[in-house]
Amino acid sequence: MKSAVVVFPGSNCDRDMAEALRLVTGEAPTMVWHRESDLPAGLDLIAIPGGFSYGDYLRSGAMAAQSPVMRAVKEAADRGVFVLGVCNGFQVLTEARLLPGALMRNAGIAFVGRDVAISVENSQSAFTSRYAAGETISVPVAHHDGNFQADTATLDRLEGEGRVAFRYAADVNGSARGIAGILNEAGNVLGMMPHPERAVEPAHGSEAGRRLFEGLLEGITHPA
Ligand SMILES: NC(=O)CC[C@H](N)C(=O)O
């Protein structure tokens, strides 16, 4: 599987993401600096990692969404390339309008950093095919702007189209309907606040995130 990890000034989970991809796919991803306007040819997956791009100034992800590389990411997504945005990556994808809604300040104002239980709401996507629908998994979160909000029509549409991929088992940050991760209409773009790349080996305490990368690898090698 050919993958790339986009790096912004302030990204701090880019290495974790690269390591998870290398571990699961056996191939190291290409690290792509955000000022590039082109991505490597033939990519299967683009990962937008967590962190504090541009120091979270203005709004989390708002400045990164304007980086030259994001135009290439959008073009690739339109062609069906898989795009995974985790935490700050999810914030960047909403700011770039590849995903609907917005990630607001956590309802409790404080930064939340701990393992949380999330349920897999849709196991039909390539990202979630290795999970059972309704399964609860443990994955860490680390954010202050994880409070997913959208208007009622958008939330209803996300639910109705099976685009809520993950939901918090108990409230973590005030997110509307407990939404922890969503898919785009075509199902090839996933944004999620919990960090699957931090749950891929025994030392992490949970290996639940590993199956997300395994599902992608399988989906790419054996497309449905
Ligand atoms: N770990 C992260 O990606 C942090 C995301 C974001 N900057 C926040 O704190 O909300």
Automatic annotation (TrEMBL):
Pathway assigned in UniProt: Purine metabolism; IMP biosynthesis via de novo pathway; 5-amino-1-(5-phospho-D-ribosyl)imidazole from N(2)-formyl-N(1)-(5-phospho-D-ribosyl)glycinamide: step 1/2
Q: What GO molecular function terms would the record report?
A: ATP binding; glutaminase activity; phosphoribosylformylglycinamidine synthase activity
Q: Which reaction does it catalyse?
A: N(2)-formyl-N(1)-(5-phospho-beta-D-ribosyl)glycinamide + L-glutamine + ATP + H2O = 2-formamido-N(1)-(5-O-phospho-beta-D-ribosyl)acetamidine + L-glutamate + ADP + phosphate + H(+); L-glutamine + H2O = L-glutamate + NH4(+)
Pfam families linked to this entry = GATase_5
Q: Which GO terms describe its cellular component?
A: cytoplasm
The record's section on Gene3D superfamilies has:
3.40.50.880
Q: Which SUPFAM superfamilies match?
A: Class I glutamine amidotransferase-like
Classification via InterPro entries: Class_I_gatase-like (IPR029062), PRibForGlyAmidine_synth_PurQ (IPR010075)
Where found?
Answer: Cytoplasm
Query: What residues sit in the active site?
Result: C87 (nucleophile), H195, E197
Protein's UniProt keywords contain Ribonucleoprotein: no
Keywords noted in UniProt: ATP-binding, Cytoplasm, Glutamine amidotransferase, Hydrolase, Ligase, Nucleotide-binding, Purine biosynthesis
The keyword Iron-sulfur belongs to this UniProt entry's keyword annotation = no
Q: What is its EC number?
A: 6.3.5.3, 3.5.1.2
Tell me how this protein assembles: Part of the FGAM synthase complex composed of 1 PurL, 1 PurQ and 2 PurS subunits.
Function, in words = Part of the phosphoribosylformylglycinamidine synthase complex involved in the purines biosynthetic pathway. Catalyzes the ATP-dependent conversion of formylglycinamide ribonucleotide (FGAR) and glutamine to yield formylglycinamidine ribonucleotide (FGAM) and glutamate. The FGAM synthase complex is composed of three subunits. PurQ produces an ammonia molecule by converting glutamine to glutamate. PurL transfers the ammonia molecule to FGAR to form FGAM in an ATP-dependent manner.
Q: Under which name does UniProt file this protein?
A: Phosphoribosylformylglycinamidine synthase subunit PurQ
Provenance organism:
Allosphingosinicella ginsenosidimutans
| Gene (name only) | purQ
